[in-house]
């Protein structure tokens, strides 16, 4: 190993020790974990009963159920009585049990209330059972997850899920390395490395027996459980020594052990204390905006009814004191009670009598309509995805359908949601020549399989090369272009990829999907990366095996935006191979670099198709230059002052005077229909934000690719946020920058912002911009962004994602959508709606969402109108019955009116109401803005509805009263007339007639004409005159009302007069000159070629690496993977005497490549 690396490692270890000691001194480290000491943790285990919790250490098993047998009844009743109407009805039931004030029987309210509470409670319980039972079971053998306790030492085998946050003690890999897949945490499918402490590695790998592991008695002191996924602070006390710990030593719960046979770890955080569950967030009960407005209206109606009851009670007292006392019959009815006492009893009687203005059947019907709307979503065959369209859309929460028609902000994950997380090597430019198809493919996967090249000569070819240009293959094999060979050599050497051989072929494990795509493309073209050690690289170049000595590796960072390797070639020369973003490579080129102009034109060409580009360059380094540079590097490594600046200056000095070889163009393929969907949603008025854990350049490129950003969009980032934004601007933020704008009052783990008002200013700025892209954000920060939008806007938010890292965001938004992707089912299990594709948002929002909002809004207004107009008649009747709280209707009509007579017409309205077809909804996305502006359901519109109901109640009472005044028709006949008129008014208000609404009307009137003669039967009156006191309208009665033409004419005239204002407004809207929605029909959305200028650097280059720094330091420090030799390829025919320098020939070594040179 070079001396510079040895010195650098020691210096870094010294800095780490000092840094950790200072951190632990300044930070409150209070979490203590003792290895193999269950008796210590058992007495401090966290326990709970109902809402009481005590203890310190969480159990590993975390329940997925919202309810338990003990908490179901109290919790569901608590949630049910959050609704003001239910609480009001409960008070009505209590008062109806008092005979002195009960104006209608007790069962008229009790039975409906029990049904309402039971139906809603059972529905919530069923949803909870479905959500929990469909969660995929996870087991951990030989111990179950629930048996894991803090301090336990666990053995993890390859491809097992980590059951808790573990301190890595040792592994089967050299230097106790292990590799984990973090797709369920950060959405990245590339592997991350973790490494154990040298102390535990040395002790436990020498004798890795169960006795050794059971005898481990270390004590870990670390920070309290928190949601920070990428940081960890603590120290291990063992054998009288203190060893600092950081995130590289921790295996997080939910990650999967890969490429490592066995790993041993000590449980630090278990159950709900683990970092991934700390990021999941609490299960929130979501209520729609319509429900909140409805609750306020209910409170207003209740206050109005109480006020009217008070006025009528005052009238009752005055009537008794001045009128009843003068009339002997009326005076006897008061039983000697004082006017004040009579007024008191009358007040409560009127409160009960007017209670049907808030019918409980509203909520039963409301729930049923929600369920049917959810079934419509699942039945939509246009929203079925997966293999053979086997995955239907699913509404996992049936209470949020109308919110789908009001979404103002869509916050989306990137990896796996917008993209397929599948990178393809599409094109390249070498020596000014562009290779690949001239007509670039669209970023949607409609361009199917790649064109086949003749790669039969390559025994390592695995297929899947999407660069279809035989010219490049012919040049490489004919050795016609030296730059092409150097270009492929750079791709095969300049990376941190690890190799594992399976079935005779190399399988690459890369730190980023970009590197895997580049190394894989080089393999297909004949430059096969075979293996690496800490100081050498082995590559097969067109069947010739070559060994390169690795002198130094200048790793990638987000600041450098480039990576370089300095190697000694088999011939003895020194070469620096470099790849990176164009803005950092082009400024480091040698003067008069050939092919520069043609390469820049190629960069612009690739940018127009939103391909991710990297510049490839090389440099010949002299021995003198290397010796001088390495000595300076060693001195800089020993320096503690301005250490990073000196290293950066040395790296910059080595990466100068580069020779440009070419450019790679990689496609991060979008999911099918993503650009069209985002374009359509933007036309519908939605603000689309992208929240991703990926790097900034990648997110920006995807933003342009999916048409979230227009070609002329100006990106605002950093200090530019203070500048004036516009419609053609977009905000680009990173996770650390979000610390300055987010604030979570209930989470003390997050930093408090210094300027509390900056969040509102930020949202004002974001509202002026086209979109917002948040990069390098943690799952907790994703939820913070959603909270920021909810806190500072009145907009309905929707969050969509496909991985466990999106769960917190999905739960925080008003509406959470989970995609059934490749990152597991965590997002779907915690979402309100589950889809197979992002493109299905078109129909979910613009069709089902808009229909649901319209149907439910019209239904609620319709329902409130009919019930209030029906019940408020008693107010006017009170002026003619001495304010005695006598009912105008008979008891059974009050019950059956909302349950049978008028239920089905209103239900049909809420289920089948439809102004335009699904095709028109998609063709005219501007129609969706009606819901965003809440034009169909708002406080003023509800107030107008209630005023109309008040007017109708006046007409329903006084018009029949005027007709029957001084006539032979009695009180019972008038009551029937008012009942018929109220039914007719419901018919006349129906605007959209369908076969279902016609059938509902016929059934409703049929029930009325069947039930009324029964409840008005003289026989029932004789048996129970209290419950059946209307015998006069029976068909066999001489004083019946049904055969009378006056009754029918009066009912029709009354109904027409009642709905006259509604018809007047409707006619005015139809004949007015100004439309409420200006719409133009749009054709199919097509992708356009973007005309980017050369200077737009942010738009073009991208180098998507994993979180943090690369693993180059690990490779050059000697703590690399074990050396793996390529196994025998069955197609090989060449010599079998090839060996690596200093190594014996492996039995599995390939026998199809010849040796040409060795490492010097």
Automatic annotation (TrEMBL):
Task: Report residues binding Mg(2+).
Answer: 413, 415, 802, 806
Annotated region (Disordered) at 1126-1160
Which sites are catalytic?
A: 413 (4-aspartylphosphate intermediate)
Give cofactor(s), names only.
Answer: Mg(2+)
UniProt keyword annotation of Transferase present: no
Binding site residues for ATP: 413-415, 515, 556, 579, 612, 692-694, 776, 782, 805-806
> Which intervals hold domain P-type ATPase C-terminal?
828-1068
The answer to keyword Transferase applying to this record is no
- Show the GO MF annotations: ATP binding; ATP hydrolysis activity; ATPase-coupled intramembrane lipid transporter activity; magnesium ion binding
Please list the residue ranges annotated as the P-type ATPase N-terminal domain.
Answer: 66-109
User: Cellular component terms, GO, for this chain's entry?
Assistant: plasma membrane; trans-Golgi network
**Record-linked NCBIfam families:** ATPase-Plipid, ATPase_P-type
> What family, per the record?
Belongs to the cation transport ATPase (P-type) (TC 3.A.3) family. Type IV subfamily.
UniProt-recorded name of the protein: Phospholipid-transporting ATPase
Q: Cite the source lineage.
A: Eukaryota, Metazoa, Chordata, Craniata, Vertebrata
């Amino acid at each position: 190993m070079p001396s510079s690396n040895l010195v650098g490692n020691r210096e870094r270890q010294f800095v780490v020790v000092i840094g950790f000691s200072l951190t632990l001194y300044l930070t409150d480290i209070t979490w203590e974990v003792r290895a193999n000491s269950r008796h210590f943790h058992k007495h401090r285990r966290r326990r709970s009963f109902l809402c009481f919790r005590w203890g310190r250490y969480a159990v590993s098993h975390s329940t997925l159920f919202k309810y338990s047998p003990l908490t179901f009844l109290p919790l569901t009743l608590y949630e049910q009585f959050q609704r003001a109407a239910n609480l009001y009805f409960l008070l009505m039931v209590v008062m109806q049990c008092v005979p002195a004030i009960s104006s209608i029987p007790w069962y008229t309210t009790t039975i409906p209330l029990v049904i309402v509470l039971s139906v809603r409670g059972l529905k919530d319980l069923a949803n909870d059972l479905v959500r929990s039972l469909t969660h995929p079971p996870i087991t951990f053998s030989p111990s179950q997850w629930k048996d894991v306790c803090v301090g336990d030492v666990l053995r993890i085998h390859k491809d097992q899920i980590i059951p808790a946050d573990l301190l890595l003690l040792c592994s089967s890999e050299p230097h106790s390395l292990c590799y984990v897949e973090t797709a369920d945490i950060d959405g990245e499918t590339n592997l991350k490395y973790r490494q154990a402490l040298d102390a535990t590695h040395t002790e436990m790998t020498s004798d890795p027996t169960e006795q050794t592991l059971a005898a481990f008695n270390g004590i870990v002191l670390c920070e309290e459980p928190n949601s920070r996924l990428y940081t960890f602070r603590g120290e291990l006390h063992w054998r009288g020594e203190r060893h600092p710990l950081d995130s590289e030593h921790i295996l997080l719960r939910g990650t999967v052990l890969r490429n490592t046979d066995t790993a041993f770890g000590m449980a630090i955080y278990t159950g709900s204390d683990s970092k991934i569950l700390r990021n999941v967030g609490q299960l929130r009960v979501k209520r729609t905006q319509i429900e909140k407005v409805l609750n306020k209206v209910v409170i207003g109606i209740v206050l109005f009814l109480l006020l009217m009851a008070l006025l009528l009670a005052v009238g009752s007292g005055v009537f008794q004191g001045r009128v009843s006392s003068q009339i002997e019959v009326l005076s006897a009815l008061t039983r000697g009670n004082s006017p004040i006492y009579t007024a008191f009893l009358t007040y409560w009687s009127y409160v009960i009598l007017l209670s049907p203005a808030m019918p409980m059947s509203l909520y039963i019907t409301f729930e049923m309509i929600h369920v049917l709307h959810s079934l419509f979503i699942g039945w939509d065959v246009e929203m079925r995805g997966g293999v053979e369209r086997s995955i239907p859309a699913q509404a996992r929460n049936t209470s949020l359908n109308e919110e789908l028609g009001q979404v103002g902000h869509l916050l989306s994950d990137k990896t796996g949601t917008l993209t397929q997380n599948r990178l393809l090597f599409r094109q390249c430019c070498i020596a000014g020549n562009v290779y690949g198809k001239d007509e670039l493919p669209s970023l949607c996967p409609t361009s199917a399989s790649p064109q086949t090249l003749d790669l039969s000569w390559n025994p390592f070819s695995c297929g899947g090369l999407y660069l279809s240009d035989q010219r490049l293959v012919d040049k490489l094999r004919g050795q016609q272009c030296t730059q092409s060979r150097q270009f492929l050599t750079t791709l095969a050497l300049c990376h941190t990829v690890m190799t594992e051989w399976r079935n005779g072929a190399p399988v690459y494990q890369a730190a980023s999907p970009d590197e895997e795509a580049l190394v894989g493309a080089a393999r297909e073209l004949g430059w096969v990366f075979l293996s690496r050690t800490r100081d050498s690289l082995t590559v097969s170049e067109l069947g010739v095996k070559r060994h390169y000595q690795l002198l130094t590796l200048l790793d990638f960072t987000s600041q450098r935006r480039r990576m370089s390797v300095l190697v000694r070639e088999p011939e003895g020369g020194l070469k620096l191979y470099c790849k990176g973003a164009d803005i950092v490579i082009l400024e480091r080129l040698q003067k008069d670099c050939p092919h520069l102009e043609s390469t820049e034109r190629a960069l612009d060409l690739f940018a127009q198709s939103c391909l991710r580009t990297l510049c490839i360059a090389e440099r010949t380094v002299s021995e003198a230059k290397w010796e001088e540079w390495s000595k300076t590097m060693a001195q800089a490594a020993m320096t503690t002052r301005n250490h990073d600046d000196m290293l950066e200056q040395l790296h910059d000095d080595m990466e100068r005077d580069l020779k440009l070889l070419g450019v790679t163009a990689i496609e991060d393929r979008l999911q099918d229909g993503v650009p069209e969907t985002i374009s359509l949603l933007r036309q519908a008025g939605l603000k689309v934000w992208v929240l991703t854990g990926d790097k900034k350049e990648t997110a920006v490129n995807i933003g342009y690719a999916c048409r979230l950003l227009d070609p002329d969009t100006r990106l605002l980032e950093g200090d530019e946020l203070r500048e004036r934004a516009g419609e053609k601007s977009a905000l680009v933020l990173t996770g650390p920058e979000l610390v300055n704008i987010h604030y979570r009052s209930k989470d003390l783990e997050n930093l408090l912002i210094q300027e509390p008002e900056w969040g509102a200013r930020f949202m004002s700025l974001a509202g002026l911009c086209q979109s917002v892209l948040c990069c390098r954000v943690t799952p907790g920060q994703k939820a913070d962004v959603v909270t920021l939008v909810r806190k500072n806007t009145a907009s309905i938010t929707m969050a969509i994602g496909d991985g466990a890292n999106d769960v917190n965001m999905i739960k925080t938004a008003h509406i959470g959508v989970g995609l059934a992707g490749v990152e597991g089912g965590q997002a779907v299990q915690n979402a309100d709606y589950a889809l197979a594709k992002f493109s299905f948002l078109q129909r979910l929002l613009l069709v089902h969402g808009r229909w649901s909002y319209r149907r439910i809004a019209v239904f609620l207004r319709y329902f409130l109108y009919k019930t209030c107009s029906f019940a408020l008649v008693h107010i006017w009747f009170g002026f003619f019955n001495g304010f005695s709280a006598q009912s105008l209707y008979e008891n059974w009509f009050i019950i059956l009116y909302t349950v049978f007579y008028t239920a089905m017409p209103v239900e049909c309205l809420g289920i089948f109401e439809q102004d335009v077809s699904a095709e028109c909804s998609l063709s005219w996305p501007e129609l969706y803005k009606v819901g965003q502006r809440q034009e169909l359901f708002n406080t003023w519109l509800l107030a107008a509805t209630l005023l109309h109901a008040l007017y109708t109640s006046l007409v329903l009472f006084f018009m029949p009263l005027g007709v029957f005044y001084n006539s032979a028709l009695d009180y019972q006949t008038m009551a029937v007339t008012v009942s018929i008129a109220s039914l007719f008014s419901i018919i006349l208000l129906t605007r959209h007639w369908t076969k279902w609404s016609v059938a509902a009307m016929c059934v409703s009137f049929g029930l009325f004409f069947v039930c009324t003669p029964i409840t008005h039967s003289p026989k029932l009156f004789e048996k129970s005159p209290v419950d059946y006191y209307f015998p006069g309208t029976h068909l066999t009665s001489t004083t019946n009302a049904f055969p009378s033409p006056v009754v029918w004419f009066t009912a029709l005239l009354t109904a027409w007069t009642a709905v006259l204002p509604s018809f007047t407004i409707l006619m005015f809207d139809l004949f007015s000159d100004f439309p409420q929605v200006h719409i133009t029909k749009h054709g199919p959305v097509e992708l356009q070629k973007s005309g980017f200028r050369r200077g737009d650097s942010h738009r073009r280059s991208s180098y998507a690496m994993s979180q943090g720094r690369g693993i180059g330091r690990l490779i050059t420090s000697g703590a690399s993977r074990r050396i793996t030799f390529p196994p025998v390829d069955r197609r090989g025919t060449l010599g079998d005497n090839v060996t690596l320098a200093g190594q014996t020939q492996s039995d599995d070594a390939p026998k199809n490549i010849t040796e040409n040179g060795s490492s010097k």
